[in-house]
Structures are given as C-alpha cells and as structure tokens.
Specification:
alpha+beta, Thiol Ester Dehydrase, Chain A, 2 domains, 12 strands, fatty acid biosynthesis, FATA/B
C-alpha cells in the first residue's frame, strides 16, 4: 500500500485569483509542494536528486475539481506515490476540506531526466523504496487530450516570451506557467462566469529560457469544453490540454 503524506495548509491571498479562490496554476504549485515535502522527509528530495545530475519532470496531469479552496480556508493536502517502474512514476494528490470532502483530485505521471543530456533516465531503486509504491513493469500514460485539428477554428491566440522568472531549477519553464498561458488567452468575462471541472494536460516537449511560444484555444458551441495547445515558434508542439467548464 503506497505511503500517504498529509500537510495542513491555510490558503494565502497571493495564491488566489480575483474570485478569491486558489488559482489553477497555484493548485499545481501546492501539489508539488506537498510532494517535495514528502520526498525531503524520506531523504530523497531535491538535493538527493540534483547531486546525481537528475531532475523530476511532469509528463501529464489529470485534474478533477469539485470546487477550489477559498482565501483563508484551511485544507489538507495529501499525496501518495502510487506506482513506479524503471522510468515512470504515478503520483496522486487530494485536496480535502475541513468537512473531510475531497474537493480536488490530481493524477500525475512523472519521470526523471538527466539534467545535462535532457533525456529520461532510470529511477534509482533507493528512491523508490521509501514511498512504498506498487512496483510494476508497465505504467500507462493515460488518455491523451483531444488535439486541435485543422478543422477547428482557433478562437483565441496569444504569443508569449519566456521570462527569467518562468524558469525553475530544472532549467525549463515551470509547469504551472503552461496553465497561465492556457487560461490567460481566454476572455476575462468567460473566466468570471465559468469554473473548471476537469482538465487533462500532457507535456510533450520542455520550453526553455530562449523560447517564444504561442498559446491557442478553441471552444465548443456550448462553451463547456476548450482545447488548448502551446506551440514553439517553429510550429512544434510543447503542450496540449482539454478543459471542461461549468457555469458558476
């Protein structure tokens, strides 16, 4: 049985958007926070990884949101490293409110990267043992988000340059900024009138310090689902996602 790890967290005002709820990019930052804290407690944290010339990367997130926590609300952040094989790891996150309700669930797929060669490497066995995961031969990458096709009409598009502060210590754009780019491209009125219920995002290629990217989105007629992609200047795909929405 995978080892669970919990922390209590009081939502800060700077973690929220104009709705006084935790912003979607910050949800991912909080998830990474609790996973890092578990790894540090198991003596396999960032120092352990970086001393070996490696870094964790996220390949995919599947997110299910009942509601987002409000400013000053106290929630429990829970994580468990559910499955490992030689190259990949499944990690789950749950946000639990004061009534014990699971308000957010995140399923994620991670891998380790050689920081110099920028290629995937085997996960050391000594890193796996402390999490007490199920060790399996094959880990499914999960369902891919539906891609934007040539038949789709691009309703939203905006270009972004990578800023110095977008780069984390794995020397690429922090994953939370992809959410910034995807959500920022949408209309403010739409965002104020809708809430995300589910999101499936897959990271195909890392964005670096010198890159310029274009965020594109299409929306269905009912305004209940949007498809997104982040493209490099040469048209190559960095990330794509599908977001399902509901009226507030």
């Amino acid at each position: 049985m995978p080892k669970t790890y919990d922390i209590s967290h009081k939502v800060k005002y700077y973690e929220c958007d104009m709705t006084k709820q935790v912003s979607v990019p910050m949800l991912l930052n909080l998830a990474i926070l609790v996973s890092n804290m578990q790894s540090e407690d198991l003596q396999v944290g960032d120092d352990f990884v970086h001393e070996r010339g490696m870094g964790w990367i996220v390949l995919q997130y599947d997110i299910d949101i009942k509601r987002r926590p409000m400013v000053d609300e106290v929630v429990t952040l829970r994580t468990m490293a559910r499955e490992f094989n030689a190259f990949f790891a499944n990690r789950d996150f749950v946000f639990i409110d004061a009534d014990g309700e699971e308000i957010i669930k995140i399923h994620s797929l991670f891998s380790l990267m050689d920081m110099e060669k920028r290629k995937l490497v085997r996960i050391p066995k000594e890193m796996v043992q402390g999490y007490e995961p199920e060790v399996v031969k094959r880990i499914s990458r999960g369902e891919a988000p539906a891609s934007i096709t040539d038949e789709d009409v691009i309703a939203y598009e905006k270009q972004y340059g990578v800023r110095y502060t977008d780069i984390d210590f794995n020397l690429h754009v922090n994953n939370s900024h992809y959410f910034d780019w995807m959500i920022d491209v949408l209309d403010v009125d739409f965002l104020n009138q809708h809430e995300i219920t589910t999101m499936n995002i897959r990271f195909e290629k890392e964005v670096g310090a010198s890159d310029k990217v274009t965020s594109q989105a299409v929306m269905n007629d009912e305004q209940t689902q949007s498809k997104h992609r982040i493209l490099f200047a040469d048209g190559g795909l960095a990330t794509e996602a599908v977001i399902n929405w509901t009226n507030k």
